[in-house]
Design goal:
The chain is an alpha/beta fold. It has five helices and five strands. Helix 1 links the parallel strand 1 (3-7) and strand 2 (27-31).
Length: 128
């Protein structure tokens, strides 16, 4: 079963994402801040990380940077969620190695499409 780590400080958003992904059959883990999210990413070895950009303690950029520095998490698919829609924010996230960037509010279809694309790409890299 595919395991997805959701790092989101807004409880209602986190719960909505959790409910949506679990309804689609994904195994989910959640964290309410960047520090806990980073620890869970290193300990739980999720198949994909869905992470808010603006988080308490450690922001999403720092979580992604830390994951990219570790050999066993360097290629872990990573999707940013954010209410910030400027090109600067988008490019900064992508330059750090994010696989996708969803601007809040996003639809159920947008989230599922981003997750599915990343998982398929990861499967092709692993197989190919």
């Amino acid at each position: 079963m595919t395991k997805i780590l959701i790092i989101e400080d807004e409880e209602s958003v986190r719960e909505n994402i959790l409910d949506l992904l679990e309804a689609e059959g994904f195994d989910t883990i959640t964290a309410a801040n960047g520090r806990i999210g980073l620890q869970l990413a290193l300990y739980e070895d999720p198949d994909i990380v869905v992470c808010d950009l603006m988080l308490p303690e450690i922001d999403g950029y720092s979580v992604l940077t830390a994951l990219r520095e570790q050999p066993f998490t360097a290629t872990m698919p990573f999707i940013f969620l954010t209410a910030r829609s400027s090109r600067v924010d988008f490019y900064q996230g992508m330059d750090l190695g994010a696989d996708d960037y969803l601007t809040k509010p996003f639809t159920r279809a947008e989230l599922l499409s981003a997750v599915t694309r990343r998982l398929l790409k990861q499967a092709n890299v692993t197989i190919g």
